[in-house]
Amino acid sequence: MGARRVRENSSGPGTFFCRFAVFPRCRAEECRRNGACVSARLLPNGQRSHPPEPRDTGARRNGPRVTFLGITASVEHFLHRRMHMATRTAIRAVLAVLVLLVAAAPLHAAPITVFRYDANSGLGGCPGTCVIAAGVGNLSATTPAGYVPWFGAYMVHNWASGDPASSVGIWADTLPAHDSLDLEFLLAIIDSWDGNTVAGGTVYPDYFNVKVDGVSVFSATYDNFLTSDQSASTANSLSFGTNLGFNAGWADSAYDFTGSLGLLSIPHSASTVHIELFASGAGWQGGTSTGGDESFGLNNIRVSVNAVPEPASLLLLGTGLVGLGRAWRKRRG
Description:
Blueprint: E1 3-9, E2 12-18, E3 30-33, E4 36-39, E5 41-42, E6 48-49, E7 65-68, E8 71-74, H1 75-104, E9 112-118, E10 122-124, E11 130-133, E12 137-142, H2 148-151, E13 154-158, E14 168-172, E15 178-191, E16 207-212, E17 215-221, E18 237-242, E19 252-257, E20 263-267, E21 273-280, E22 294-307, H3 311-332
Antiparallel strand pairs: 1-2, 3-4, 5-6, 7-8, 9-10, 9-22, 11-14, 12-13, 13-22, 14-21, 15-19, 15-20, 15-22, 16-17, 16-21, 18-19
């Protein structure tokens, strides 16, 4: 069986015939003959003329041949085509995985610490000036025995009253270029926090709040009587509803906001930051230096910024993707 093509050239219309095989795919000016791509040159009189040797397509012209449903092709061509398809599939898969990784993962270096305060070791980690103030409280209060395993010998203790109450304030400047920040700390919920409703106490609600540059990034009620009566998660609870050493008449709790449990990726890009941690609510009563009615404690406070990726890093990633794309296109051709 043959196939007929008509081609326009400088000599006018011409006709040529060639035997078609299944593999490989040929360019428009070529035809498939005996399983190989060959140039189809037309003589002025319209007669066909093929070169004596086929174009090298990576497969032998002569070799074992198979026939299926009347179609004949060389085994070498079949295997070559299958390997070629597998290579393209592999390159596509690699490119797809890279695109997904780029889309899903923020191109950030490791977070850079710009503020650190531990009541047991003091202030540090600041690129410029750092300040912490306890508000109505103590930056290095003696930690009651029940809290010592997590907080150490000393903690920040705030017992301010009011709605909102005076905050523990943090200030830092000279921050490196960044587009978000992370805030980590340990939190002590001390004495009679009453949660959301009367189920947790007669004077409610009691909120713990965090603001960054005046914008609220966390606000939740806590209850030392019933976890079901608070809006805060208990997934990061270290201890709940046990007297840990303040007012003997009330239970206490402790929560871990460090590491992956912290307040992470808070949008922020300014070179300075002011953070406020405070209590509020119509039922908030405050306490005393020894606990009193209700208060809160903090320790291991850390602020880190997530640096904007460097242009060179983005260029390197982009160059790699472009290189893979070109390799794929070249292989495909």
